[in-house]
Amino acid sequence: MSRPAVLVARAVFPEVVERLATHFEVEANPDDVIWSRAELIAHLQGKAGVLTTGSERIDADLLAACPGLRIVANMAVGYNNFDVAAMTAAGVLGTNAPDVLTETTADFGMALLLATARRVCESEHFLRAGLWKNWRYDLFLGAEVHGSTLGIIGMGRIGQAVARRAALGFGMRVLYHNRSRLAGEIEAACGARYVEKDELLRTADHVMLVLPYSAESHHTIGAEELARMKPTATLINLARGGIVDDAALARALRERRIAAAGLDVFEGEPRVHPDLLTVPNVVLTPHIASATRGTRLAMANLAADNLIDFFTTGRPRTPVNP
Ligand code: DGY
Q1: CATH classification at residue 59
Q2: Interface ipTM
Q3: Is residue 135 part of a domain?
Q4: pLDDT tier, 32 (very low <50, low <70, confident <90, very high otherwise)
Q5: What span, in angstroms and rounded, lies between the C-alpha atoms of 264 and 285?
């Protein structure tokens, strides 16, 4: 019997491609060229499965042009690149890569919060530019992290992992807002209290965004929400670009209507809003919250497991449209 043909749409660890090649006819994208949509569709011809990284939009038009496709395995927990309804209608399964990145991503959330509140990058640039003349009592005064109030918007697995770190490790008061309130024992385990979004924005010293992107969460933080935050507050976006109105944020940062921001994700990334590049009080990182070798390998292997399980047992491990 011929083996199913599978496309690996972006470069991933060679050992994962080799693993896939023991089960499938594999076409990989080793040079990591970002294919245009037409090129992606051309490469998908004759393929029954594809491993994606989250940047490939899977919608009704693409599915209509790729009638042999049966499964799309995202190497990401977020799957806002999937039109899930269109995939279900076309009988195509989608899978994501949850759990394996939770703790690593939460670690990075704390790294970004600390770097932003304590002005790590701004002061490092100052030092490298040769501007440091002396110790001064008021050099790069930052915001307190320990004992302050963290407001988390989006309290899924990653939000909860951040809450545990903040409450148990840094003695922070943790507030959260989520579509639905968590069970009492989960709130207690992560030391977090549910509040309405407005209260969270008004009272938090640091606001961290960890919610999935969807039409409903588009611009969850825009000019109005930024105006409700404390002028001393920081904003951290660990989730997806598009959840924050980057132009409004750049204005708020420039006018010091909030103190600082830390962003790992951007609207239309890898493009970054040019105004964000010119304000000093923002820490910008290139979507690396899950980027440790162990975690990225686990994400790629879970995507591969989903393809292998689907074609051998019919049941992938982490479907999003079962
Ligand atoms: C995810 O898994 O959704 C991350 O953003 C990709 O690193």
Answers
A1: 3.40.50.720
A2: 0.92
A3: yes
A4: confident
A5: 5
